[in-house]
Design a protein that fits this description.
Blueprint: E1 8-13, H1 20-33, E2 38-42, H2 49-55, E3 64-68, E4 71-75, H3 78-84, E5 88-91, H4 107-116, E6 120-126, H5 134-141, H6 151-155, E7 159-162, H7 167-175, H8 182-190, H9 195-215, E8 225-230, H10 236-250, E9 253-260, H11 268-283, E10 287-292, H12 296-307, E11 311-317, H13 329-336, E12 341-347, H14 366-388, H15 393-410, H16 415-432, H17 446-492, H18 497-512, E13 516-522, E14 525-532, H19 539-550, H20 552-564, E15 568-569, E16 580-587, E17 590-598, H21 607-674, H22 680-712, E18 720-723, H23 724-736, E19 743-747, E20 753-756, H24 758-774, E21 782-789, E22 792-799, H25 833-843, E23 849-852, E24 858-865
Parallel strand pairs: 1-6, 1-7, 2-5, 5-6, 8-9, 8-11, 9-10, 11-12, 19-21
Antiparallel strand pairs: 3-4, 13-14, 13-17, 15-16, 16-17, 18-20, 21-22, 22-24, 23-24
Helix pairs in contact: 1-2, 12-13, 14-15, 14-16, 15-16, 15-17, 16-17, 17-18, 17-21, 18-21, 21-22, 22-25, 23-24, 24-25
Amino acid sequence: MNKKRGKLKIFLGYAAGVGKTYAMLKETHEQLALGKDIVVGYIEPHDRPETKRLIDGLECIKTIDVHYKGRVFQELHLNAIIERMPECVVIDELAHSNTPGLRHEKRFGDIEELLNRGVDVYTTINIQHIESLHDLVESITGIPVNERVPDWMIDRADEIQLVDLEPSVLIQRLKDGKIYAPERAKQALQNFFTLPHLIALREIALRRIADSVHKRIPLEHAKEHILVGISSSPTNAKVIRTAARLVQSLHAEFSCVYVMDDSNELEAEDQERLQKNIELAEQLGGTVVILRENNPSAAIANYAKISGVTKVVLGKTMGKTTWFTRRKLTDAVNAFIPSIDLYIVPDYENAQKKSKRKEIDFSLQWLDFLKMICIFTCVALLGMFFQYLGLSESNIITIFILGVLIVAIWTTSWLMNIISSAIAVLEFNFLFTQPIFSFEAYHKDYPMTFFIMFLAGLLTSSLAKKIRKQEQTAIYNSYRIETLLDANRTLQSAKNVDELMNIGCQEMIKNTQAPIMLYTIEQKKIQNAAYFPCSHLTTQQNEHAKKKLMNSNEQAIVQWCIYNQKAAGQTTNIFKDAFAYYVPFSFHDEVQVVLAITFKQQQPFSKFEKQIMYAILNELMLSYEQFYLLEENMKVAKEKELEQIQSNLLRSISHDLRTPLTSISGHASLLKTAGTQLTNEQKYTLYEDLDYNANRLIQLVENLLAASKISNGQLSLHIHEELIEDIFQDCLEQIAKHSERSIQVDIQEPNLSAKMDVRLIRQVIYNLLDNAIQHTEPHCHIYLKAYKENGLIWIEVRDDGQGVSPNIKEALFHPTTFYHLKQHDAKRGLGIGLSLCQNILQIHQSELHVKDAIPHGAIFTFSLEKGSGI
């Protein structure tokens, strides 16, 4: 049985010393008195007598000693708590950063794991440690806070209890030495613990509690949608937090957009900062969207229009604007979407800093010089040829500009654009202007000609370089789209989940060029591990990777993913030193599969390769969910169909039972009440009718018993070789007991025999004959025939009645088929007779067929294996 997620209760304070830990321990004693299995996992070792006294009498899990840089730190012993598995655990300081080497970087990761395992948690936190309030608190106190908790952790709390205390009382407690030692208390009173600071922090805490309460109440009015821009700016984190606070207060939808400009590559420092800002946006509950566009303002505006954004939050550097400065992003966005509210977060810190110019590749290579010399030699020769033909100088100038363009396309350095433009002017001056073979120019128009020629060459070469770079970006994008389309097409070809995962693993191997392990999970345990080797590695390397993935440490990470339903391993903050990246695939809060993706150890993945890998992984996860949803829908549809089958079957059986039972009951009542008044002939008729209906009931019960045995797999076959003539004779004698209808028999040749279970085949023939009698008029003829064809014995039951309607032929052998061949025959149901015949013949490796007789009627046929004597 799956255990539910544990409940989280947070004791929130606006500053240290308000009594969070005291209130939490007091609550712990109350729960212990009520019989709750509650233990203490970790309490911050403050020298506060009241708090220490409350720890007495409580079961405490021993902390773990962690050695780091020559020191020993006491930390929460997560594994010991999991082994103890209490109903509830008390853990102080939610925002604490764990010592490096532990499973999680932050304590809230430990608490999240315990909650996922079904353990309730009590914990404490101060308001300044909440991520979205970091900038606001820092602006009030002037003190940065490094230990922070993402807002989603606070929002997921089942209960938040505000531990409040008057600021003046808190200051007095600090002065009395009840919070810190005298030296530290004196310093705190001068910095953090001032009355204005505490009043402001208390107000923020009260407001945050109110927002949390309101967030749980569904709003009837239209929901706000807030969009914030993400960038690599040092102050973008402040912009994101401001937007998050706005989202919190308005209970709005939160979107975060980063516009990727392919023509502008970020430095390593900016790339790292950008990644942190994206992670911050995700932590604060934002949906991150990455757009590819050279015009950020247009991209943000278009996305805002399409997504129904009501408010946009952007940062703005507050510096002087001059006539030559580029238009600000905020102004451009406002011009595009004047109807949407724009919130600007000012950035005074970077106002005086010069913007970092884009680095241009000015490096020179001898190969580029050689290419340029070859090109301009050809250009000079072509120019001389044009001059020989008598063409004007403007045509020769065009040839030189073309040469500059070719140099720009064929070389790599931006500096070659300037050099080639200058060389073109000098070479043209030297070879084609008077006096020739001199750099002097006598005509007054030449200086302007040279300047325009140089400028045209420089502009065209720069444009060529830019187009070349855009072409390279387009090739990357095209390859990415083609790869994803190919992966999607391949994944869509899968017919079941197992095939889907196999195809997905092969696609991932093609991208990562490294082996993959697929773990199948049942009941939160690894049931099977399928290893997919990489063809790019040697057999020895593949075996080494397989051993690594199968060791106990890596298996423990898989188990962690199963319980926490989160990715872990390489590229994550959990088990960073793992050999692989582990991704769980969940459905209905149950992990079904864990994928272990190894990485190339010699060289790290490029940014482009990572994008492709994660995109394919997302495609695989979506396809996986679609398969499980499809299976779930099919299961629901099948259950619904089974319910319908059961209902129809009960109606059909009750219909077939009611008719003979009503007749038997009526005849018995008549014989009982008026038996002395009836003649012998009348009594004989009643007795015959009683016998007929009793036989029908017996036949129906035998059919039901046989059908039940077949469906349960309890029916055993006794195959023997039997004469067809004997089987026909037995069936006709049984039919004659309750029907005077004439049945014409035709056996193609004497001593015709077949291999069968005689009891079951006799029941099939009897059901077919009885069906023909019940659904044809008394004057209609019925034929029973046996003949040999294609090495098989065929048995045929034919009548010349009205036949079977074409629209029910396909469902004729279904157990719930219930139809009426004639209006006056509405009292008779088809029941399960034909369905039983089909099942019996199927276990004989045969099948019952129906077709129309000519000119009218129905023919039922089936085949049996011929006897050895034929």
